[in-house]
């Protein structure tokens, strides 16, 4: 077994010792935390997990569930929110980080903008990602339809929950 190696912590610059097989650059878990206080080191680390596309999108290659996800400030958050916070600044309460490019994995701050939930919904409707309101005639067709919910979702561009609410009468009650 090799003797421990002396290192200098990348964050607090304390001297610490490691085993040769352990490539730590931090002296402790506290110094290794992904926080705003450790912004430059954290950005350097996470920028290795992206890919630049020809259209200018910078796609997050780490864990994704539609949107990129990573741990930051002690909690798991959307990669877009983390990149915005690190490169632009804080996000006011109640605001979303929205995509101009409609690529949910994109973390390029030039492709992002802050907006309210309403702004985000209006943007989705404007770009054709979500169908706007349905007509009363369409609601009646949905309510009386014998088709399965998945088919109605595709036909009308609504969510499953919207279809269920129309069918059970909790929305469009007057029809």
Protein described:
It contains seven helices and nine strands, in the order ββααβββββαββαααα. The protein is an alpha+beta fold. It has three domains: 1-29, no CATH class; 33-126, no CATH class; 136-168. Strands 5-6-7 form a three-stranded antiparallel β-sheet. It has a two-stranded antiparallel sheet with strand order 1-2. The chain has a two-stranded antiparallel sheet with strand order 3-4. A hairpin with a 1-residue loop joins strand 5 (64-65) and strand 6. The protein starts with a strand and ends in a 7-residue tail after the last helix.
Chart the SSEs and their pairings.
Blueprint: E1 5-8, E2 15-18, H1 29-32, H2 39-46, E3 50-52, E4 58-60, E5 64-65, E6 67-72, E7 75-78, H3 79-87, E8 96-99, E9 112-115, H4 117-126, H5 136-144, H6 149-156, H7 160-168
Antiparallel strand pairs: 1-2, 3-4, 5-6, 6-7, 8-9
Strand order of the largest sheet: 5-6-7
Shape annotation? elongated
**What share of the residues lie within helices?**
25-40%
Topology, number of strands:
9
Mean pLDDT: 86
**How many structural domains does the protein architecture include?**
3
Q: Report the span from N to C terminus.
A: 78 Å
Secondary-structure element string: EEHHEEEEEHEEHHHH
Largest sheet at a glance?
A: 3 strands, antiparallel
Give descriptors for this structure.
3 domains; single chain; 175 residues
